[in-house]
């Protein structure tokens, strides 16, 4: 039998300790990554669950809403600032959209109706064309007619450059892909009667009646919160 030198034994023990520690660290890192990923996935799932959307919208800092002038569905120039004294619900609507944007328009209209006629007279619905490749007055007018909104809101358009400027001012993502299909933030803003940004909402990609109803109730609550006092 050959006896190992004590110094050699110490080196082997040290090597074993280092190897074991490394395995523990690696295993911990792997589980940490898995737990982090699970946490992110859970958060993402929760954020798209209608039950987790705040009633009344997401609060904003109260900055003055950037002013702009575009052309409405009747071919007339229209400035956001012309609505001072009224609350404004501002949405970004693709003039060729047949999926999510009609839901946004429906939610806006129904939420306003829920306020009752007196309160509804103190809020205006405003949309900006979120399709910089379909900018004609005929496009926004036709979309408004097809969705029963011709005389229910103001739907604004302009040149692609003018529209891009408004997207930038409001930090709204709009992207036209290679098939000329538009991706954009399905977002609405509540602007108070003095022109300050107060709330924002995002439309859920869901045709469920319960989802639509919950969004209408939430938007109504947000609208009611910032209504100006009757004159």
What does this structure look like?
This protein is of the alpha+beta class and 231 residues long. It has two domains: 1-47; 54-225, Glutaredoxin. The protein contains six helices and ten strands. A six-stranded mixed sheet has the order 1-10-9-4-5-6. Strand 9 (187-191) and strand 10 (197-202) form a beta hairpin. Helix 2 packs across helix 6 (209-225). The longest helix is centred in the N-terminal third of the chain and has 42 residues, at 6-47. It is globular and about 45 Å long. Mean pLDDT is 83; it is low at 1-53.
Task: Output the keywords.
single chain; 231 residues; alpha+beta; Glutaredoxin; 2 domains; 6-stranded mixed sheet; 6 helices; 10 strands; 42% helix
């Amino acid at each position: 039998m050959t006896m190992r030198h004590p110094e050699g034994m110490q080196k082997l023990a040290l090597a074993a300790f280092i190897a074991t520690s490394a395995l523990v660290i690696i295993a911990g890192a792997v589980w940490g990554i898995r737990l982090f990923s699970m946490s992110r996935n859970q958060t993402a799932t929760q954020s798209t669950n209608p039950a987790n959307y705040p009633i009344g919208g997401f609060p904003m800092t109260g900055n003055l809403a950037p002013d702009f002038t575009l052309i409405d569905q009747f071919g007339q120039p229209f400035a956001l600032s012309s609505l001072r004294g009224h609350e404004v619900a501002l949405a970004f609507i693709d003039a060729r959209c047949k999926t999510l944007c009609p839901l946004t328009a429906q939610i806006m209209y129904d939420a306003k109706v829920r306020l009752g006629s007196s309160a509804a007279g103190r809020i205006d619905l405003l949309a900006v064309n979120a399709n910089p490749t379909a900018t004609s007055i005929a496009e926004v007018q036709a979309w408004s007619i097809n969705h029963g909104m011709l005389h229910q809101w103001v739907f604004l358009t302009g040149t692609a450059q003018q529209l891009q400027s408004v997207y930038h001012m409001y930090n709204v993502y709009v992207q036209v892909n290679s098939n000329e299909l538009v991706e954009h933030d399905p977002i609405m803003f509540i602007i108070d009667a003095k022109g300050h940004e107060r709330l924002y909402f995002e439309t859920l990609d869901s045709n469920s009646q319960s989802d639509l109803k919950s969004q209408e109730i939430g938007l109504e609550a947000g609208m009611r919160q910032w209504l100006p006092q009757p004159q």
